[in-house]
Design a protein that fits this description.
With 72 residues, this protein is of the alpha+beta class. The protein has one domain. Helices cover 39% and strands 22% of the residues. It contains 3 helices and 4 strands; from the N terminus they run βαβαββα. The chain has a two-stranded parallel sheet. The N and C termini lie far apart (31 Å).
């Protein structure tokens, strides 16, 4: 599943619906969001690709930022 800025024109009710709907799929998902609420509620794992190296974080976006800060 590939989503790119899928909450841009949504109100809170539609964002909640989409969040719950996405969580029902057990497939790989690539999401591009600038909505921090969504970034904290949807991902359970974050795969970072940086300079040809991959790192897997088993957390939401806020926890990912904390972990990444510890590893710098």
């Amino acid at each position: 599943m590939l989503l790119d800025e899928s909450t841009n024109n949504f109100d809170i009710e539609r964002i909640e619906w989409l969040k719950n709907y996405i969580k029902t799929f057990y497939v790989a998902k690539i999401k591009v969001f600038h909505d921090l609420y969504f970034l904290d509620k949807i991902p359970e794992k974050i795969l970072e690709i940086d300079d040809r190296e991959m790192s897997l974080y088993n957390c939401n976006y806020s926890a990912y930022l904390e972990e990444k800060g510890k590893n710098l």
